[in-house]
Backbone:
């Protein structure tokens, strides 16, 4: 199977598709190609995709049924007042924000899952040139692959900043040369990070926001795992904004946009519902763009989403299930494979020496499908893939399945 998006010779005649010529195929397509020649030892257990398998919350079906007629209407791009108010209330509760800090109509916007919004943001936020040069869009390495697609679509150059155990699995954007930062139009940060589960502290976020304001770039913080955490609730960049002096334009969220989703928090990946919140002036531009070009969230789904943001109990239950599975992982894997408890998210990031070989072995000997870390990262300037020693294990299955799978991982890779 071909490993890049650009496939046949005819694509060379199309400058638009050439934009993506160097982009590898998606991690799951590569994984399927890697495993295709091999035979799994039994019924496959999927630990590769970050798709929560916990039950859909009880309130979903009745609300959907109640709003069924709304499928007969085009939804407004800004969603409903009820949705924006629910999001505002959740942000205030969850991140302890002062009630007057957020203007629901101007700081908050629904998105059709955060993936499309993460992809679309650079089309608005990254200009054709920055200081007379092609703009740079910085992102962690490894990373959620859609960031690179967004940067390339906007005509910017993606810059992959290693996030390894040497840097506590967080990228050191502030340590980049001044010239690089001056050419930067946008930065993607992810906290809790997929795949490593590392969480940026309030201070890390303050430093990055200050950097964004000094160097005039937009900071996009992907916080879609914010409600899945181990011990301490991760901070939001919105909180960090409010702990800094308000910029002269009067908007405390200047230069910053955060992304939140119900896919992980509420185990509703199929709902395709999330929101973005932040910089008022940028939101106005994003709104104008989205009004023409972006997918709206259907009204019945917005009604479900409104109920989900208004309820914390189901999210707490959900979080508890992940915590139990992390406990299991700790007791079964111990300190093998450099195991550590992820501070956030639901992935184990295990150093197994050779991630590709371990993935094949787990498939052949245990029918376990995990993701090689290498598929989530790009080679650095020395041709080194910073994640090639790792596998990512998504703890999305039920407790019993997870216990069996973790025991098999320890047996198969430990031998
Ligand atoms: C880091 C990260 N960001 C964003 C997303 C997109 O989530 P959704 O589009 O379901 O909101 C995912 C999904 O796996 C993710 O892992």
Residues:
């Amino acid at each position: 199977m071909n490993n890049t998006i650009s496939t046949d010779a005819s694509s060379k005649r199309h400058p638009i598709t050439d934009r993506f010529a160097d982009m590898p195929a998606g991690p799951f397509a590569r994984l399927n190609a890697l495993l295709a020649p091999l035979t799994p030892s039994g019924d496959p257990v999927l630990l590769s995709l970050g798709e929560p398998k916990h039950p859909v919350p009880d309130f979903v079906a009745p609300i959907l049924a109640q709003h069924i007629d709304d499928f007969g209407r085009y939804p407004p791009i800004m969603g409903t007042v009820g949705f924006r108010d629910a999001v505002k209330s959740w942000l205030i509760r969850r991140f302890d924000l002062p009630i007057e800090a957020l203007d629901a109509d101007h700081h908050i916007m629904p998105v059709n899952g955060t993936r499309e919004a993460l992809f679309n943001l650079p089309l608005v936020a990254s200009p054709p040139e920055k200081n007379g040069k092609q703009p740079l869009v910085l992102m962690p390495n490894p990373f959620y692959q859609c960031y690179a697609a967004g940067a390339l679509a906007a005509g910017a150059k993606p810059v992959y900043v290693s996030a390894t155990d040497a840097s506590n699995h967080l990228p050191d954007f502030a340590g980049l040369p001044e010239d690089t930062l001056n050419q930067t139009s946008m930065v993607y940060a992810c906290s809790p990070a997929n795949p490593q589960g590392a969480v940026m502290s309030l201070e890390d976020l303050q430093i990055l926001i200050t950097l964004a304001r000094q160097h005039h770039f937009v900071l996009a913080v992907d916080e879609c795992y914010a409600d899945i955490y181990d011990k301490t609730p991760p901070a939001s960049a919105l909180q960090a904004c409010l702990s800094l002096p308000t910029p002269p334009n009067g908007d405390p969220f200047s230069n910053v946009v955060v992304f939140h989703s119900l896919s992980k928090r509420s185990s509703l990946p199929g709902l395709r519902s999330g929101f973005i919140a932040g910089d008022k002036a940028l939101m106005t531009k994003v709104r104008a763009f989205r009004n023409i070009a972006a997918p709206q969230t259907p009204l019945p789904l917005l009604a479900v989403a409104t109920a989900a943001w208004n309820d914390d109990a189901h999210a707490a239950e959900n979080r508890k299930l992940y915590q139990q599975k992390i406990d299991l992982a700790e007791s079964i894997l111990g300190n093998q494979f450099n195991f550590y408890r992820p501070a956030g998210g639901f992935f184990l990031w295990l150093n197994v020496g050779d991630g590709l070989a371990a993935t094949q072995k787990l498939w052949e000997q245990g029918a376990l499908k995990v993701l090689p870390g290498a598929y989530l990262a790009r080679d650095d300037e020395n041709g080194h893939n910073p994640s090639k020693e790792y596998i990512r294990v998504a703890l999305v299955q039920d407790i019993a399945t997870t216990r069996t799978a973790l025991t098999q991982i320890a047996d198969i890779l430990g031998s």
Observations:
- The pocket of pyridoxal-5'-phosphate is lined by residues 50, 113-115, 118, 144, 190, 194, 222, 224, 261, 263, 269, 274 (CB under 6 Å).
- The first strand starts at residue 45 and ends at 46.
- Residues 5-11 have pLDDT under 50 and may be disordered.
- The chain has two domains: 38-55+314-414, 74-310.
